[in-house]
Amino acid sequence: MSFNNKFRFNRPNSLDYDHESSSVVSNVTTSTSNSASSNIHPLELIVQSIIGPSIESYSKKLNNLQESQMVLTSRIKLLQIRIANIDKDLDLIDLNQLNNLDNEINFKIKMLKEKLVGIFNLLKVIENRVNKISNNIILDQQERLKEQVGSTKQK
Predict the structure, then answer these.
(1) Are 38 and 10 spatial neighbours (Cβ–Cβ below 8 Å)?
(2) How many whole angstroms separate alpha carbon 67 and alpha carbon 47?
(3) Cα angle, residue 66 at apex, residues 4 and 85 outer, rounded to 5°
(4) Continuous H helices in 9-41
(5) What is the dihedral of CA 126, 128, 129, 135, to 10 degrees?
(6) How many CA atoms lie within 13 A of 106 on its CB side?
(7) What Å distances lie between residue 80 and 59, 76, 85, 87, CA to CA?
(8) Which residues are CB-contacts of 10 (< 8 A; sequence separation ≥ 6)?
């Protein structure tokens, strides 16, 4: 809907703008007949004819601006919803993955701990055997020395 139709302005048919005197010169008969037929004051017609097109263009620009603002607002809301959904999905994935990772790490730590305990116990057994073997070797050497000392004394 145009500005003129919205506010019911009727432009006079013959208005000329005089650039030298910066005033509007109108045909008296036309403006008188228009003002009589539409009950609009001639000065109002003159102002409307000068300002009307720019007001109408501003009105159209404001309407376009409002429409584009509504479109942008709706797009921003959609983007916010998408971002919120992505954040929720990432939070769920992160929590699930972290829980799974924690469970895996705890399981691996437990298994490694059990292996280390087993290895430690095995090392104790091996150390005891090595000590026994070394003690037996030392005892054997001592007995041989005693035998050698005893055999040298007998000779």
Answers:
(1) yes
(2) 29
(3) 160
(4) 28-38
(5) 140
(6) 6
(7) 31, 6, 9, 10
(8) 4, 34, 38, 40, 45
Question: How, if at all, do strands 23-26 and 15-18 pair?
Answer: antiparallel
60 versus 98: the higher-pLDDT residue is 60
pLDDT digit string (tens) for 16-63?
A: 444 444 444 444 444 444 444 568 888 888 888 888 788 888 889 999
Q: Domain-by-domain residue ranges, the chain?
A: 3-154
Query: C-alpha angle with apex 102: 98 to 106, nearest 5 degrees?
Result: 175
Could you tell me if 56 and 3 are in contact, meaning their C-beta atoms sit under 8 angstroms apart? yes
Is pLDDT larger for residue 82 or for residue 21?
Answer: 82
